[in-house]
Design brief:
The protein is mainly β. The chain has helices at about 1-20, 30-40; strands at about 50, 55, 60-65, 65-75, 75-80, 80-85, 90-95, 100, 120, 125-130, 135-140, 160, 170-175, 175-180, 200, 205, 210, 220, 230, 235, 245, 250-265, 270-280, 290-295, 300-310, 315-325, 330, 345-350.
């Protein structure tokens, strides 16, 4: 009897600490036996938990005011129950295979995702999002799912939006967007401001053109070659209409000209010289006249001017010059370059008519 009582006494001596708590302060791997002691007799506090597969089946894991330094799961982390973390901090949660959580998950702080990792959506991984270090790629993995942005207020992008099958929307500078496509199809109504097809021309000429007579306006011809840089504005260089430029779209047009003239008089004089732009009916375009003085003979004088003009489709415009002496002419250049110029012109549509 005394021997049996002594053995019972020794059993409780070894059992008592486990009844109070199975307390682990060192790096441990919890086993089945440890889990049973924690469940039946006490609370396990573990700084580092390493398991091969952790499955919670319709149960609940509760962390209250706890700091878990590392949870490393080398297999699957699957829960069909609840993980309730109240005032809990997870310093590192590493899952090398799969983290599966049924139900909603709430994150109250930043989530940092690595580069070049895809995040899949849909039961069949139909759609994925990937950040490759420079771009966010939305990819249809199965079929061609749509990407819809709704109820988000303002939607901002960077400088360029490139479409996978071709086409670019490029914000080339503040307030100006360039759309580059092979074919642009629109259906329904489109309302926009200052949207139009480009209209421009850059003609130039190298020809000696004398004034008809003193104080007579002389048309400037452009006969050097076919204009290479042009769109929407008509000009023919090799017939008797080579002084006119035909406008094919209403708008506000930017016009500039740069011309070299010379006085071939036998003696020095002070000559007034002027260039202007007119409609083909003779009406002068307001703001186009630019005048200067020639004070030396056989010395070229340059006239440069720029203006805005309101033009309509079908308008024809002509450049003219005049002087108060009939010894003035537009001079020819030939010292340098393959295409020297005596006059060059820019006509470019800038705005739609208000």
């Amino acid at each position: 009897m005394k021997k049996k009582s002594f053995l019972i006494f020794l059993f409780f001596i070894f059992l008592t600490p486990s009844l109070v708590s199975a307390h682990y302060w060192d790096f441990v791997t919890i086993g089945q036996g440890d889990a049973r002691w924690c469940q039946l007799f006490g609370t396990c506090e573990i700084d580092n938990l390493i398991v091969k597969n952790l499955t919670i089946d319709n149960g609940t894991v509760i962390f209250i005011n706890k700091t878990v330094i590392n949870i490393n799961v080398t297999g699957d982390f699957i829960t069909s129950g609840n993980i309730n973390a109240e005032n809990a901090t997870f310093t590192n949660l590493n899952v090398s295979n799969k983290l599966a959580v049924e139900g909603e998950s709430f994150f109250n702080d930043n989530i940092h995702m690595p580069d070049s990792i895809k995040y899949y959506f849909g039961s069949d991984d139909d759609f994925s999002v990937e950040f490759d270090g420079n771009n966010i790629n939305f990819l249809g993995e199965v079929g061609t799912p749509d990407v819809t942005f709704s109820s988000i207020g303002d939607f901002g992008i960077g400088d360029k939006l490139t479409f996978r099958l071709g086409g670019i929307i490029d914000n080339i500078k503040e307030g100006i967007i360039k759309v580059t496509v092979d074919l642009f199809n629109l259906s329904g109504n489109v309302t926009a401001e200052n949207v139009f097809l480009p209209q421009y021309i850059f003609p130039h000429n190298n020809e000696t053109i004398p004034v008809i007579a003193a104080n007579e306006w002389t048309n400037i011809t452009f006969t050097q070659e076919e204009v290479v840089i042009k769109q929407g504005i008509t000009h023919t260089y090799n017939d008797n209409t080579n002084t006119t430029f035909t406008i094919n779209a209403d708008g506000i047009y930017y016009i500039s000209f740069n011309a070299d003239v010379i006085d071939t008089s036998p003696s020095a004089s002070d000559i007034d010289i002027s260039v202007r732009v007119i409609h083909s009916n003779g009406t002068e375009i307001l703001g186009s006249v630019f005048e200067t003085d020639i004070t030396k003979i056989q010395v070229e004088t340059e006239l440069s001017h720029e203006l805005l003009a309101r033009l309509n489709a079908g308008n024809q415009i002509v450049f003219q010059f005049t002087a108060d002496d009939d010894n003035v002419e537009m001079s020819t250049h030939g010292t340098f370059g393959e295409h020297p110029n005596s006059i060059s012109v820019i006509i470019e549509k800038r705005y739609n008519l208000p």
